[in-house]
Design goal:
It is a single chain. This protein has about 150 residues and is mainly beta. It has one domain. The chain is built from two helices and four strands, in the order H-H-E-E-E-E. The protein has a four-stranded antiparallel sheet, with no helix packed on it. It is globular. The chain starts with 14 loop residues before the first helix and ends in a 22-residue tail after the last strand. About 20% of the residues are buried.
Amino acid sequence: MRFQRVSHLAFWLGLPIALFAAHGVHAQGLHDESTAYPTVTDERLQHPGAGDWLMYRRTYDGSGFSPLRQITASNIGKLSLAWSLNTDMVEAHETTPIVNHGRVFITTPGNNVIALDAKTGTQLWRYVKKYPEGLFQLHPTNQWSVRRA
């Protein structure tokens, strides 16, 4: 019997992002249509906005701590899922989503990149990596790196 796996990213995207988007909570650093989309700079990587998650574990010290305060012990039971995403990819999703100014960027197996609106989960764009004919990955998890110039 063949089992089809469906990848839902609500867990991977970080429950707080999805949850406070569902309740219309506005936090510093989340998308605001009236301002320009900010470039990721060394300064922003060193001091990310409260609503941004610009790298693995959020900061260079790897704390993984979010300074957002909208989700508390008193309201956690009232939260519900805002949205989820099926990437149509059946292999492991293993990288950290990046959040910049209300946009979420995820990678998938096969080295695809998907940009989403953090509030709605709406796909903004998707890059699909084209591989040469006959080339395949032995372990097709999502793996990517960024090189500095």
